[in-house]
Write a structure and sequence with these properties.
single chain; alpha/beta; Rossmann fold; Alpha-Beta Plaits; 2 domains; 6-stranded mixed sheet; 5-stranded antiparallel sheet; 10 helices; globular
């Protein structure tokens, strides 16, 4: 039922705790988003799950293989793609694919078939003899994905795969992720793009090495206490200061683009009658802000 199960995974580097008691359960065939700011422990967690780093404490299984004793079996059965794409710029497109096919011990007709499929998926069939260094970011991204799934892994780990890629390429990349999930591949993707998390079946927020929330996007939004107000303003920071200076009660308040977002309890609503507010559904960015501030104990109620 679960492709990934971990129990209190912890990783320290000297006195620094990079991953702090992280327990996960990722369903087979699902898309699982792992969200958090830079330095929050996302990449370190991924490297532990891939068998690249040993946990300092805790345990878990990947596809039924034990993280502590079967790292090589795990590596042979997963796909991994990092933000840096792990491509060789001085090789052509086809040479990169052939190199990775050799790494995964693919040969003969199966090797040629999978390479052809990956070229088609990436839209690079006509550019297979082009140097990888000459490819734009979106093309490199899809080539790197093709290299990571040549061997048909049961689970795919994507570590910040859309960083530095234009919005159109990001959308195309997510279309491919959807297709892989429909075919039964379990996908765990780390990102700091909150809009991408909307595509995931479940998401977890990690902050300073700790899981601070873990559920479906819909449940996380519905689980916030109270209600969210959106107040448009030509000067959001000035409006925010006005509300704070008047000591109007709220749970949390912050500027959001050309608006001010205010979390309130229902009984606090009447205090905002002087402003043209709208009651809106929280976005995942609002949810993340709430949980981070709750973790820091910065909320007023």
């Amino acid at each position: 039922m679960y492709a990934v199960q971990t129990n209190k995974l912890t990783r320290t580097f000297g006195d620094f705790v990079a991953v702090d008691n992280v327990s996960l359960q990722i369903k087979k065939g699902s898309i699982y988003g792992f969200l958090g700011p830079n330095g929050s422990g996302k990449s370190t967690t991924i490297r532990i799950l891939c068998g690249i780093l040993e946990p300092t404490s805790g345990n878990g299984t990947i596809l039924g293989y034990d993280l502590l004793t079967q790292a090589e079996e795990i590596k042979a059965n997963i796909g991994y793609m990092s933000q840096k794409f792990s491509l060789y710029d001085d090789l052509t497109v086809i040479e990169n694919l052939e190199f990775y096919a050799g790494m995964y011990s693919l040969s003969g007709e199966l090797k040629q078939q999978r390479i052809a499929e990956m070229l088609k998926m990436a839209g690079l069939t006509e550019r297979r003899t082009e140097l990888t260094a000459n490819l734009a970011g979106g093309w490199k991204q899809r080539l790197a994905l093709g290299c990571s799934i040549l061997h048909n892994p049961s689970i795919l780990f994507l570590d910040e795969p859309t960083g530095g890629v234009d919005p159109k390429s990001r959308r195309m990349f997510w279309d491919i992720i959807y297709d892989l999930s429909i075919q039964g591949t379990t996908i765990m993707v780390t990102t700091h793009f909150m809009d991408e998390a909307e595509h995931c079946d479940e998401i977890a927020f990690i902050y300073e090495g700790r899981l601070i929330a873990n559920d479906t996007p819909a449940n996380l939004k519905q689980g916030l206490p109270g209600m969210l107000l959106n107040i448009p303003s030509a000067d959001p920071l000035e409006l925010l200061e006005q509300i704070v200076e008047k000591s109007i009660p709220y749970v949390d308040i912050y500027a959001y683009g050309t608006n001010v977002h205010v979390f309130i309890l229902p009984e606090q609503l009447k205090a905002f009658a002087d402003w043209p507010y709208q009651v809106i559904e929280p976005a995942l960015e609002d949810v993340f802000v709430y949980y981070v501030k709750a973790q820091r104990k910065e909320l007023t109620a």
